[in-house]
Amino acid sequence: MRILALNGSVRKYGNSEILLKQALMGAQAEGAEVEILNLTEYDIGPCKGCGLCLFKDNVCQVKDNTHQIFERIDACDGLILGAPCYFLELTAIVKQLIDRCWIRGHNQVGLKRKPASVIVPYATRGWIPYIFMQANILFNVLCLDKINQAAVCTQGISEVVLDQDALDLADRMGRELACAAKTEDHTYRGEKGVCPSCHDNLLRVLKDRETIECPTCGMRGKLNLTDGKIDVAFDDKAWEDFRFRLNVSYNHFAYHIAPSKDYFVRTREERKIKSQKYRDYLAK
Amino acid sequence: MTKILAKLRYFPGDALEEFKESDLQAIGDKFGTVVSYEKMERREMKNGLLMENTMHSKIEEITQEVITIEGDEENNVSNCIRALYKKYRCPRTSYSLMGSNEAGHKVAWRLMEESGVGGWE
After folding, report:
1. Is any Cβ of chain A less than 8 angstroms from the Cβ of B109?
2. Domain-located, residue A249
3. pLDDT value of position A84
4. Of A17, A35, A81, A281, which is most buried by a Cβ count within 10 Å?
5. Which range of residues forms the domain containing residue A9?
6. Share of chain A above pLDDT 70, in %
7. Is A248 touching B (CB cutoff 8 A)?
8. Among B35, B10, B11, which Cα is nearest to B21's?
9. Rounded to a whole number, what is the distance in Å from the CA of A258 to chain B's nearest CA?
10. Within 10 Å of residue B39's Cβ, how many Cβ atoms?
């Protein structure tokens, strides 16, 4: 059983790396083989939006070494992501990786699900509203079940070694990840959030001012106030809209993306004529 | 000849609730428009999932439910489409109004973009 850590920090021996390594030590104590990849040491180029992966070859055409990361992810039995929060969310390398997962996100039929956790060192309380959102997206498109999440307040380089509770937490997360991989029990063990799927506390208020939605999962519910407390209610139907559910994600590809090819071909001439002025404008 | 014709193409999972012809007719009657319904079904069960290869198909031929609204008065058509969006949400894709005439496309598209009407944002 192999546990993979993905490090989204540029800092060498920084807090993300330390927390991940502590988690891997925990996983190793449970019998796991372990591995760490520093994402920033890989050339992860931006998705070009060329659509060839979807419409032609089923393979990403960008020539860099992102595929090496995917190979490691495919070879592992459990994954832990660590990345710092510098500005309200995780570092850009994580988003870059998410964008490169496009075709993988639409090829999930028959894939085995694996457990995953995320740990995020950050500096200032109150400046971390979106830190779990990217991890939730990444895990869902990679067919990973999140079993835990944690944010650790720490700032200067390697400062987290002064926080034994944080190290213990990371160790525990590594152990439970290895156990989850072994037993295939992917039950979520972390602090529960309002969204019953991703356990984040983000909510989007729809413009009808009646409906709220988990922006990551697309699940919809209602807000109620009970004794001054906000109660967020998702009924069973909400799960039907869960955007990463296999049939929802499949429908998205089959009916919202693939048929756009026909539309694209049909509108070719009109687009060509109408877009000419934009090709000419400011052209060198 | 009808002045305004809008076609709303709903693909699997797009509509908030099941279309019933009686409901559609009632909405059409309420706003002095004609509302009709057509369903295409090409999916087959594979690996426990309803699947269909849509990559090389014409949009009009893939699995979908098409609601057609016809009327002569823009205000009536607009109110009818508004009621349909309220009940079912608006369709989602840039090609979901294919087959509409220019006037119908304009009304249906503008309502999708109107704050709080389309049901998605």
Report:
1. no
2. no
3. 98
4. A81
5. 2-183
6. 100
7. yes
8. B35
9. 5
10. 10
The mean pLDDT of A214-239, rounded to a whole number, is: 93
Identify the pLDDT of residue B1: 63
A111 shares contact with chain B (CB less than 8 Å): no
Has residue B48 got a pLDDT over 80? yes
Among residues of chain A, what percentage have pLDDT more than 90? 88
pLDDT at A18: 98
Residue type, A152: V
Q: Identify which of B91, B76, B89, B75 has the alpha carbon closest to the alpha carbon of residue B34.
A: B76
From the list B49, B92, B119, the residue facing A250 with the nearest CB is: B49
The tally of domains found in chain A comes to 1
User: CATH no. for residue A49?
Assistant: 3.40.50.360
Report yes or no on A93 lying in a domain: yes
pLDDT category, A284, cuts 50, 70, 90? confident
A255 touches chain B (CB under 8 A): yes
Token couple for A123: 């500096």
* Banded model confidence at residue A93, pLDDT cuts 50, 70, 90: very high
Determine the distance in angstroms separating the CA of B99 from the nearest CA of chain A, rounded to an integer: 12
Cα–Cα distance, A150 to A100 (Å, whole number): 25
- Chain B closest CA to A57's CA: distance in Å? 12
Q: Among residues 36-95 of chain B, which lie with CB inside 8 Å of chain A?
A: 47, 49-52, 54-59, 62-64, 92-95
CB contact under 8 A, B49 and A109: yes
Cβ neighbours of residue B107 closer than 8 Å, sequence gap 6 or more: B4, B6, B74, B77, B78, B81
Domain for residue A75, yes or no? Answer: yes
A222-231 CB burial, b ≥16 within 10 A, e <16: eeeeeeeeee
Mean per-residue pLDDT over chain A, rounded:
95
What pLDDT, on a 0 to 100 scale, did the predictor assign at position B100? Answer: 98
Interface of A with B in 163-202 (CB under 8 A): none
Query: Phi and psi for A231 in degrees, rounded to 5?
Result: -115, 125
What is the C-alpha separation between A110 and A122, in angstroms, rounded? Answer: 37
ipTM of the shown complex? 0.95
Fold of B4-113: Alpha-Beta Plaits (3.30.70)
| Domain spans in chain B, listed from the N-terminal domain onward | 4-113
Residue A102's pLDDT is 85
A56 touches chain B (CB under 8 A): no
